[in-house]
Structures are given as structure tokens and as C-alpha cells.
Model the fold of this input.
Amino acid sequence: MKPIRTALFAPGNRPDRVEKALGLDADAVIMDLEDAVPFAEKESTRKTVRDLLDKYPGKRMYVRINALNTPYAKEDIAALGSKNIVGLMLPKVESPDDLIAFGRLLTDLERDSGLIEGSLEVLSICETAKGLEEIYSIASVKTEPNRDMIITFGAADYTLDLGISLTREGRELDYPRTRLPIASKAARIGPPLDTPWMVDLKDIDGLVADAQKAKAYGFQGKVVIHPSQIQPCHDVFTPTLAEIDYARKIVEAFEAAERDGKAAIQLDGKFIDYPVVERARQTIELSRAIEDQG
Done:
């Protein structure tokens, strides 16, 4: 999957907000059929979202459906057969079986809509204690056909499930934030997306600190819920020019040393060996991938 530094939520029953979101600089837009939509509007919102999907080709658009154990999920999926949809977000994932069942429904949608089988991406949300306990099995699941997937963290429902409160410091999230990147890497899928910053939407310093913590744990980006959160998160999750330049310097110096038969060198007082060089190459590749997607 292409990198996602920011995925902006927009309520599916508010086409004005969706259209505004699509005009912003978030890497992806997630139209919501779940928490942002009242029960009475679930059915009508499906058509609204489908019309928006058809209206905006070339945009990176996902849709969050309702959980599989609700009476809405199957009809949500069946309504989304637009050739412009990139993927679907599934909430409350608690076992590999959830993703296997979801994958079958996506394959049916692809067949009915003329989409390539296996082309729809999956954003799987971890937001319960059970989901967290099963996270490696969930990250490792292979559907038929196999499809690109990343894990997303949902702290609001996670803390609700545990009966605890979200805080500005976020220490209550340290354990899941440790588990999700490790499980994703071990399962050989892309790095996860971090939970939205919801403590105080006006607290941009708090958002930045929260994003920096997520990056340090190994998340690739963050779900955002307000336009003001996009650029601060991009600043955190995008390699800086100085980081890119130094990464290139590391690679060039090491490759020159390799030609002289050396596999460990010092550069500006720092020890450089294969793991350091590989991390530098990852930084360069990430910067290119971000640049390529505009």
C-alpha cells in the first residue's frame, strides 16, 4: 500500500464535509458509515456515499462500514460498488475469522461491480481488548484472494472497553501502541495507522507530541478528524530534507567503503553498519513514495 501519513474522517451523511475533505491535502479520506451516522440515516447515507465515490475519480477514498455483528454491515458493503473506491475500513475486528468473512464479502462486491478480485484494500481497526490480544493472528490472516491490509488503532473504543479514560499524556495507550507495530512487522504487512487525537482539537502541541510518540513506536501515520490536524501530522511523519540528505550521505559513504572491503565505518562520529544503512535506505524510499503520490 502507498504510505498514509494522514487519513481524514468525514461523515458520510454530510456530503459538504466529504467534498471539503477531498479538496484538502490528507493522503486519504475515509467516508464514515459507522459512528458519525445516526441509526435513522444509515440506509440513506449509503447512496450518498456511493454517489460521492462515483463523482470523484482519482481520489484515494476509503469507507468505514459498520461492524460485521451489526445489521448494517452486509448492506453497507453491497452499496459500495464504485470503481473509484480504494478500500474499506472494518471496525471492531477481534479475530482472523472476522477478516476472512469480510474478505468473502469484498470478493462478492468486486465480482458484482466489475472490480479486480483482491483489489480492495483493508483497514482493520483494533479497538477492543480481545482484538488487541489477537492482533498478531489478525495481522497474519491470509484471505483468498489475498489483499493489501494495514491495522488501525481506535483508542476511543479501546478505552471504553477497558473502562479507562483518554489523557493528554497517553500513557494508557503505551501497551497497544507497542503491540500493533510489532505485530504488523512480524506479519509482514505495512506499519499501522495511529488513533485520532481527540483529547482537545485545539491543542495542536498535544497532537504533535502524540504523533511523535506514535512515530517513535513505529506507526506510519495517523487518522485525523479535523483539517487543522493534517499538516502537523504530515510534518511529523514526513522525512525532513536534512534527514533525507543525511540518509543519502550514509548510503554513499557506506557503498564507497564496501568497494574498499569494509562493512563498518564511522561518519560524523557515528557508527555505520548494515542496519544503519538499511534504515537510511528506508528513509529515502519513504520520501520518494510520498513525493510520487503528490
